[in-house]
Structures are given as structure tokens and as C-alpha cells.
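Supplementary Methods, section 5.1.

A reviewer requested that the exact input to the structure prediction be made available. We therefore reproduce it here, unchanged from the version used in the analyses.
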Amino acid sequence: MIPKDILKQIRRIQITTSRMVTDVFAGQYHSVFKGKGMEFYEVRQYQPGDEIRSIDWNVTARTGQPFVKKFIEERELTVMLLLDMSASSYFGTAQQLKMQLAAQLCSVLAFSAIKNNDKVGFIAFTDRIEKFIPPRKGLRHVLRVIREALYFKPQGTGTDIAGALDYLNRLTTRRTVTFIISDFFAPDFKKKLTVANKRHDIVAVTVTDPCELELPDAGLVKLFDPEKGRDFILDTSDRNLRLEYARRSQARIKQRNSLFASARVDTIDVRTDIPYSRSLLKFFRSRERRRR
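The structure derived from this sequence is encoded cell-by-cell as follows.
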């Protein structure tokens, strides 16, 4: 039985994100993520302005009148959501936990997909594959994806992005649009990411909390590393410690961005203290400009 508070969250996310998709994202999603190609639709009589290359010479010869072929976009896509549910995703010092933000992102992307009649699949992973929902269409299916993103209790604590990408490639040989939603605190996965991006259209969605970038001056603070399962104490009043922490955080982000660039993977950077709609709009607009 799903707790009432989870059901309320699902309902709230459904209302908020479906309205946002209708008002903002659906059209941009459609223009950014194209179908697999063009398929034949019909022939019709030639009209001034039609391209000569589109003339159907067989029909033209048979009828004695010029006819042209019409094609439409083969639209249907499969969108895969790969959600990192490792222990570090249950961290948050701003408006919400990283996992709560990730669930909302899953919702927006899933609603955008079904609004365009695309299929949506879901893979939850930690240091293992935790949950797989095969790609399907429809509102009930998307609500199931949101429910699992919010309510599923993983067994693992670590992060194996390479393993999740391997699983994706074994799962399907057809091209998908795949969003990996994670903080990307994981061992080297560059090779697997590069290989997967040649088969699929991979988008890395980075989820960050402000305290992962800079430490506040809060004196002695007891922290717990959920992925390693140990406590440690930091003296956050130490200015040098805070500076070193910020330096290492920036170095880690720089290294991560360099990895994405070398693998030619697009990114969407979201934070728990900033509305994610800004980051999604920035991504859609940037990608749309590149495709013109």
C-alpha cells in the first residue's frame, strides 16, 4: 500500500508538470527530438512551388499529369529515463532532496514524451539495476513511472553508471532518447558513455545541491557518507577547509564537464535551490538553435 503522502506527491507532480508541459515544453520537446526519418504519406498533383525532386515520375507518366510524393516525419520515439537512486541522491539542504527533484524531472520528461505520442521506459539503478519498466505510452504508464521514482526503495547504495549503460544497450538495439538523471558521483564511465551515445541520443541531467559546491560556516558539523556508510566531522569554521572544499568541488565539476564534452553528450544542469524549468528551457533552446 502506497502511503497517502506519496499519493499526494504524485498527484501534485502530475498537476504541476502536466500544466508546465502543456504551456511550455511540449512544442520545444517536439522540435528538439526528431523522429527516425521520413515515411511516404501520399501523392498529389504538382502545385507551383513544389520541388522538382519530389515528382513521382511513374504516376506522372501513367496519368499524363505531374504528381509529387509527400512524406511525413516518422515521429514515434522511445524515451528512456535512467534514474540514479544511490544513497547520495537522498541528500538536500535547500528546497528539496536531490531525489525529489529527480522525480519531478522524470515527470516533466515523461509527460513531454507522451504528449508527443512517444513511448517512455524507466530504469532505476544504484550499484546494480534496481527496477526496469518497459517503454509504453499513456497516462497510467507515466503515473507508474512517477510512483516508482518517488516510492521505490533501492537495495544498493553505490553508483554504477557504466553498468546501467550496459543494461540499456543489452535491453534494446533500437535508438532511444535517453536521459541519465544523476549527480554522477561514480567511478569512470567515459568509455561506456561514449559507446552508448553512438547508439542512442544520450542527455546527462546533473543534479546538484549547493552544499556540494560550497560549505557554509557552521562550526563543527557531523556528516554521514551514505555510500561508504561512515560518519566524519568537519570544522566548517576553518576558512582554508572551506576554500579547499570549494576548489575540489569545482575541479570535480570541470572534470565531469570535460568527460561529457569528449563523449559528445549534451547536459542539463539542475540544482535543488533553483527552479529546474530554467535549466530545461536553456537546454531546449540551445539544442534547437544547433539543429537549425
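Strands lie at 37-45, 67-74, 78-84, 119-125, 129-136, 177-182, 201-208, 220-225, 230-235, 266-271. These observations are discussed further in the main text.
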